[in-house]
Amino acid sequence: MTQAGIVVAASGTGRSLSYLIEKKSLLYRVSGVISSNKAAKANQIAEKYNLPLFIDSFNSKSTTASPNLLLWLKRLKPQWLVLAGFIKPMPTIFSGLEYLSSRIINIHPSLLPKFGGKNMFGLNVHKSVITAKDSVTGASIHYVNEKYDDGRIISQITCPVKPDDCPESLAKRVFQCERKIYPRTIEDLIKGILPLKDKQIYIYNENKKL
């Protein structure tokens, strides 16, 4: 079986990049890495695995991919663009690679549409969940459009918020959920199982073996 090539976009530690690589999926392979930060540890992970690396500040407000990014992507011809801890706006218009516009996905550490939007990333999200006194949280995978965390939700995974949770402890629990749901959702997208019809969301549970 031919593996689908995915390009992973990251801005920080590259934890999600690592588990997507280490999954050793039969259905996909990480074929390149996009970084928005010259100092990101994700860059070192890309170099460790000899993966093509594209670095840019992504400060432009344009929704059209830059010529340099387009040229880089055209060499790789990825089937999916996977955001994993990427905190900058990702272009959604790719001249010559139009199919990619509908194949950009992101993972967010809450049950969207709750606790999404600009500046809602990392501990900011988990602090908001605790402040709201929610008893359940989780992670969501969604399509990417021009607005932060606004695209159609593809799948979610739930986990409890415990009474003694702090943002850091909750972040660890949600991250373990992310490690389960992201590779599985990518594989299910490749297989055509997801997205569900009629805008339904596929719900995983943290205790469900994936």
Overview of this structure, please?
- Helix content is 29%, strand content 22%.
- The protein has 210 residues and is of the alpha/beta class.
- The chain folds into 2 domains: 1-102, 3-Layer(aba) Sandwich (Rossmann fold), CATH 3.40.50.170; 109-140 and 153-210, Formyl transferase, N-terminal domain (Rossmann fold), CATH 3.40.50.170.
- An 8-stranded mixed sheet has the order 3-2-1-4-5-6-7-8, sandwiched between helices.
- The longest helix has 25 residues, at 167-191.
- 35% of the residues are buried.
CATH level-four homologous superfamily name of the largest domain: Formyl transferase, N-terminal domain
Number of strands: 8
The helix-and-strand class reads alpha/beta
- Beta content comes to 15-25%
Overall form = globular
Give me the CATH architecture of the largest domain, please.
3-Layer(aba) Sandwich
Number of helices: 5
CATH class of the largest domain: Alpha Beta
Largest sheet: 8 strands, mixed
- CATH-assigned fold name of the largest domain: Rossmann fold
Considering DSSP H and I runs of 4 or more, what fraction of the residues is helical?
25-40%
Gyration radius from CA atoms, angstroms: 16 Å
Order of helices and strands: EHEHEHEEHEEHE
Whole-number mean pLDDT: 95
| Number of separate domains | 2
End-to-end C-alpha gap: 21 Å
Topology:
Layout: E1 4-10, H1 15-22, E2 28-35, H2 41-48, E3 53-55, H3 67-76, E4 80-83, E5 104-108, H4 123-131, E6 136-143, E7 153-160, H5 167-191, E8 202-205
Parallel strand pairs: 1-2, 1-4, 2-3, 4-5, 7-8
Antiparallel strand pairs: 5-6, 6-7
Helix pairs in contact: 4-5
